[in-house]
Amino acid sequence: MSVIMLQTQGFCRLKTSLSHTWQTSRWISSTASLCKNRKSGVPKITPFRTKQLTYEEAIPPSRMNVRKGWLSFNTGNLHEEKRAAQTTFEDFLVRRFLTGTWHRSLTSEVVIKRRHNTIVLSFLVSMERMLPRQVYFLQGYSETMLSGWLKMPVKIELQTVASQRDMIFKKI
Amino acid sequence: MASSLSVKKTRLILGVMNRSLHLSSSLKSQESEKLENKKESSLDSEEFRVYEIKGLKKVSFVRRPERWSKRFPPPRYRTMPTDQDWTDVWPTASTFKWSAVPFPVRQGYVENSSENEGVIPSKYANLELMKGPNFLHLTPAHVKKHCKAIKHFCTQWPEGLDTDEQCQKHFPLESVTSDYVFAGPSLTDDRARVASIKFKLTDLELDNHARDKFIRLVGDRYDPDTGDVVFESNRCPLKSQNLEYVKFILTAVYFESWKRESWEQQKELSDMEQYVWDQNKSSKTCVSLLSDIKARDMASGDEQGKLSYLSEKEVDASVVSDLPEVQQYKEAVENLFNDGESIETLNTYRMAVEKLLNLKLDV
């Protein structure tokens, strides 16, 4: 980073010596930026289309329930049902925990389904850096820890993919 | 111009290298040696550096040894026999497993050829298929197996309860309670304490006064269209307590409606909500008229105008009111008063009167 900075400065100095009309402050903008082309959940296109997206990431939230389904299935938002906020918070907690536990191997989002009082978690695990026995251990570990915290039986129905590359749907 | 530029660039690079010297002390000796060599080469020879055209000179790369690549066993559906028992593969409800499903299936939406090479995503590594529920655990083979397993616990359906009417007759009281199960750490829910009972008003033994009073006491818990009475309670903390409470309400209202208070006697015919033939003058007139006619019939001995339905016995109020002709007349009069005059009620009244008095009108 420091080298790049230095080169940039040197380049500027060089240009300055050639013509004195160069403005060194051209990158500073004092006006408010209008982010009219930025939307949440819609990734920006890279110059050389190198960003790899899964199907879940490629479909914008506006196409929800048309081209892709939800990630949480529960009855919390139905009329006169309770625990909507607790359910949402638990989902957040579960996702954070699984992201950390299956570090660099969790290749998809976590689908959280609640059937009766059971929570079923399903996701895809990349086997690039995992051994089968590690997967079995982490599955049991995650189930035990989450069941203890949430006071509900938690079941993990995961599936494996050979590589993270198998998840690529689109490059932008 | 060109030379001055190149000199400046060289100085710049030197400056960068000088700065990097301060970064680490361990590399200091190596770096300084390199630097000295470079200084000597650049200053002593006083020659420009040779520009190397990329790709002109052959460069030999040392290939890194390939990493040991993992070999995965083939998915389960590749080794499945065609005559396998599917219930063993998919015994219970479960998330879609691409490796265990033997048929090809795709889900997803592809806009153009830049997405997934223009092909709808297959079942492998497809999260969309894992989201929705599936019915792979409810095939006819599964249902057959379930039924076979449950049959051991089934008993014969009781005789005489084949239709809904028979069930209604033998079990007139219907109690409704609810249990709630949801994804939460507690199994208790305060909505589960609500209990209700439902029955038909006609199943209770009530006379006219008691029925009227019962309807007034229960208010809108009685539905006149269906004839159902529903008592519901959530005031007690437990379901069983609420169930007992609504049964107590039923008992209390029943006996209360049979009671006749002293002020209820003050109700007169003009206070009646509906016309009741038995309590009105019409019934007494009818009885006296019929007894009169019978007396004259006996005296005259004429067979033609005689009222044939009147029995040989004495004519009194209880006998007369049970006669079908009188019942018909009673209904006709009540309809005429309660529903109002219309062509239908007037016609039925006319027919009833003709039958009652054995009139033969040749119009």
TrEMBL record, chain A:
Q: Which InterPro entries match?
A: Ribosomal_uS3m
Q: Which UniProt keywords apply?
A: Mitochondrion, Ribonucleoprotein, Ribosomal protein, Transit peptide
Record Pfam families: MRP-S24
Q: Does the keyword Transit peptide apply?
A: yes
Query: What subcellular locations does the record give?
Result: Mitochondrion
Chief place of localization: mitochondrion
One GO BP: translation
Q: Does the keyword Mitochondrion apply?
A: yes
Q: Please provide, in alphabetical order, the Gene Ontology terms of the cellular component aspect for this entry.
A: mitochondrion; ribonucleoprotein complex; ribosome
User: Record's superkingdom?
Assistant: Eukaryota
Family according to the record: Belongs to the universal ribosomal protein uS3 family.
Know the name of this protein? Uncharacterized protein
TrEMBL record, chain B:
Pinpoint the Small ribosomal subunit protein mS35 mitochondrial conserved domain residues: 192-259
- Give GO cellular component annotations, separated by semicolons: mitochondrial small ribosomal subunit
Pfam families, sorted: MRP-S28 (PF10213)
InterPro entries named among the record's database cross-references: Ribosomal_mS35_mit, Ribosomal_mS35_mt
Q: What are the recorded GO MF terms, alphabetically?
A: structural constituent of ribosome
Lineage, top-rank taxon, reads Eukaryota
Per the record, the GO terms for biological process are: mitochondrial translation
* Protein name stated in the entry: Small ribosomal subunit protein mS35 mitochondrial conserved domain-containing protein
Q: What species was this sequence derived from? A: Elysia chlorotica
Q: What is the lineage of its organism?
A: Eukaryota, Metazoa, Spiralia, Lophotrochozoa, Mollusca
